[in-house]
Write a structure and sequence with these properties.
Elements: H1 10-22, H2 27-59, H3 66-79
Helix pairs in contact: 1-2
């Protein structure tokens, strides 16, 4: 893995350091941890939004055949 240096506000880095120290992580590890949590949260939100769309369509009687449903399911699974 290659690395790049980035600039961040000093106040943010102080906050990160406080949490990182408590969790026995380095500052970069803490930022990456938070980034991964955020990415997973966004993915879950996308999945829930897609499920709600499907439920709304089913309520309207707009159903798809089994093959299309499997394709959609596999697409969602691949994003995990």
């Amino acid at each position: 893995m290659s690395y790049k240096s980035i600039r961040m506000p000093e106040e943010f880095i102080k906050e990160v350091k406080e949490v990182a120290d408590k969790e026995y992580r380095t500052i970069p590890q803490q930022i990456m941890y938070w980034a991964e949590l955020s990415k997973q949260a966004e993915l879950r939100k996308w999945q829930l939004d897609e499920m709600q769309k499907g439920l709304d369509q089913a309520d309207q009687g707009l159903l798809v055949d089994e093959s299309t449903a499997k394709d959609i399911f596999n697409k969602c699974r691949a994003k995990i």
